[in-house]
Amino acid sequence: MTSPLADLGLTIPVVAAPMAGGGTTPAMVIAAHGAGGLGFLAAGYKTAEALAGAIDTVRAAGVPFGVNVFAPNPVPITPQDYRAYRSAVQGDADRYGLTLPDDVVDDDDHFAAKIELLLAQPVPLVSFTFGIPDPDVVARLRRAGTIVGQTVTSLREAATAEAAGVDLLVLQGIGAGGHSGTLTPDRPPADVVLADLVAEVVHGTSLPVVAAGGLATAGAVAAVLDAGAEAVAVGTVLLLSDESGASATHRAALTDPHRTETVLTRAFTGRPARGLRNDFIERHDASAPLGYPAIHHLTSPLRKAAAAAGDADLVHLWAGTGYREARQEPTAAVMRRLAGEA
């Protein structure tokens, strides 16, 4: 069976992963194609209108690309747990004169509007993370000519995604930066060597696999390709690239020699995510409740204010385990090096 990736013009097996919240830019997506790979726009935290604008920018460049969408898979939180955590972090917000939201804010990240956009103006590839959309959504996108991918973190999740009718799997290992794509946020993925996880899923499903999670060297990329992945997706290693939209605060933290560890935490968003250890995590991780997107919305004003002020100890410094390999250079140079071409 021909892989759907064959239709996207890749000449190197490297994909620029979608980094929601600003890390990924249209320029990065375009540059990824220029390297011979593929780029993904991140639809997360954007309105459908903002996503449409980013799509128009990339489409005007005449390159194939993907769009990654947060599928609804809410993690509920009780009002009591929400208020307790709000009280715990309000002291941090007081530094910037902020009053954090009193009540739980839940939403689905404009999911329906984004699906209607992607059906009305089909793109080459759409992937989903956090949840698996209804099979009817998958089928409608496929009928529109779109390849559909799903982020998974285990063989069990991969089998569920395959049953939903997707075309390919983005298999995310425990070393990935940012949010885990696990379908069960209350039970984070097992700590399994990514190459071993790839081999398990390749042999347990019939779908092509794009591997992700902590991949930052040509050797690491080669290992998962040898295990059966058809391509890899990389994100953290691109955060210092010329085309990255990462904040100055985030960029500085990635090169700070005093920041020596990444950890999984739910302190910032109520959903497990990997980032550089900082003071906020130290003080709040143990008491942070599950609750997404409620905790994301709770801490968002604080994180934005701290990033603008250069206060890295109150910011979600998302980073995978390979963050020390990030360099300030063009996206294309990073991707070619990971493919073993430089």
Describe what this molecule looks like in 3D:
The chain has 342 residues and is of the alpha/beta class. The chain has two domains: 4-72 and 109-242 and 327-338, Aldolase class I (TIM Barrel, Alpha-Beta Barrel); 76-107 and 260-316, no CATH class. The protein is 36% helix and 14% strand. The protein has helices spanning 26-34, 48-60, 79-94, 111-120, 135-143, 155-163, 194-204, 218-226, 248-254, 279-284, 294-309, 331-338; strands at 14-16, 38-42, 66-70, 125-129, 147-152, 168-172, 178-179, 209-212, 231-234, 262-265, 273-276. It has an eight-stranded parallel beta barrel with strand order 1-2-3-4-5-6-8-9, surrounded by eight helices. A three-stranded antiparallel β-sheet has the order 7-11-10, with no helix packed on it. Strand 10 (262-265) and strand 11 (273-276) form a beta hairpin. Helix 7 runs parallel beside helix 8. The radius of gyration is 19 Å and the shape is globular. The chain starts with 13 loop residues before the first strand and ends with a helix. The mean pLDDT is 97. Keywords: Detoxification, Flavoprotein, FMN, Monooxygenase, Oxidoreductase. One of its GO terms (molecular function) is nitronate monooxygenase activity. Its cofactor is FMN.
Tell me what the CATH architecture of the largest domain is: Alpha-Beta Barrel
Q: Can you say what the CATH homologous superfamily of the largest domain is?
A: Aldolase class I
Total domain units:
2
Distance between the termini: 31 Å
Q: What do we call the CATH topology of the largest domain?
A: TIM Barrel
Protein name: Propionate 3-nitronate monooxygenase
Catalytic activity: 3 propionate 3-nitronate + 3 O2 + H2O = 3 3-oxopropanoate + 2 nitrate + nitrite + H2O2 + 3 H(+)
Cofactor: FMN
GO molecular function: nitronate monooxygenase activity
